[in-house]
Amino acid sequence: MQRYDHLSSVVKVFLLDRDDITVKELREHLRSMAEQFLTDSDPQGYWNGVDVDLIGDTQAQLREVVATRHLTIEQHKHVAEALSLLDKVKDKSRGDASGLLEFIACDGNDEYSDAAVENLEVSQARSPAESKREPLTLSHLASLYLAEHAVQLGEATLRGTTSVYKKLAEATGSLDMRTHTRADLVQLREVLAEDRAKSTVNGMLAKLSTLLSWARLNGHIDNDYSQKLKFTKGAESQRKAFSPEQVQSLVDGARGRPIASLVALAAITGARLGELMQLTAEDIQTEDDTGIVCIDINDEGEGKSLKNKYSKRKVPLTDGAYGFDLKSFLGDLPESGRVFANLTRFVASKAFKKLQEETEGCNADGLVFHSLRHSMATALRSASVSLETSQGILGHSSQSITFDLYGRDGSEGLKTLAEGLKKALGV
């Protein structure tokens, strides 16, 4: 009885006990909550004394409500938004109020009626009203799915599933899952495989398939294209490298496109796509002692991650390699923030695929963005650059992988790395 009463109070706090309440009223209630948390130094009010340290418990109780009680579609959406709001409250308690401010700003600009929402839910055609809806991102789909299934999952399973969905959401960005295509999912698979083993990618695709199947059955999307998406047995064929001539053609073909600098940096550093995408203006550095300009690949900052601890490194930029103009590149950098703020990994990978298709001789099987990294490894080996220097450039760690495949991590000075790159790139 005590447990039932406790859930009942959470139901009342979030107005889930009122079947007659409108979507607009539910949104206004959440907005009022957000304002309360922003203006109160000690978040209470709606929780009658429960402080911010217990927000996680409140989220767990909301998920239990989803799993054990009958809710309408609108109420399910409301709970998903409430869970998102509570995450932003946690951020505020750590000194970051930007999420709550964005929540209020978005909510305040969201003008709609109950009738309009209902029409959008049942409409199967792409009407003008439907086209104006916000994209149904994979991130939002995942939050809805987890809100319904979290209580049924063990702690370790929930943690692993959440982690996979976060990575999938980062890869797909703002892709609208209502209108996604099979080609989008195939491209996603290639993006994931850039720096992961194909067996790992298959595991991620299995969770994606579960999510999309659930989303289709629950009316969130019309089509599920995730069947037979996994790499087949024996697909672990060795990735190919571009020849120097192909790399030059790609760098030349990319000029004038949004991915021009991205392709050039990959060609002259051998860095992974994910490593380049998370670079900030602060990561483009000029070393005081040597005057060498380099990229600082690190995991310091929001949203950054590395494949492993050995991936953290500095790689010199070689002026003139494949026509790279260092002065122009530095002049085009933003004052702060991400260097490639207008791109996501998914969009960048699609754009590179299009570049390959439009560049003669560069679209053979096994050639992808990651092939630029293999090209660098091949160039280092062909130029007889030392193992240790190659390690420092590529940031590879495994002692079981031979230099014939990649090279290894090392700690030689930037001057030695710069000389090794010039030798490999023929500058």
TrEMBL record:
Signal peptide: none annotated. The keyword DNA-binding applies. GO terms for molecular function: DNA binding. GO terms for biological process: DNA integration; DNA recombination. Keywords: DNA integration, DNA recombination, DNA-binding. Residues 136-216 form the Core-binding (CB) domain. Belongs to the 'phage' integrase family. This is Site-specific tyrosine recombinase XerD.
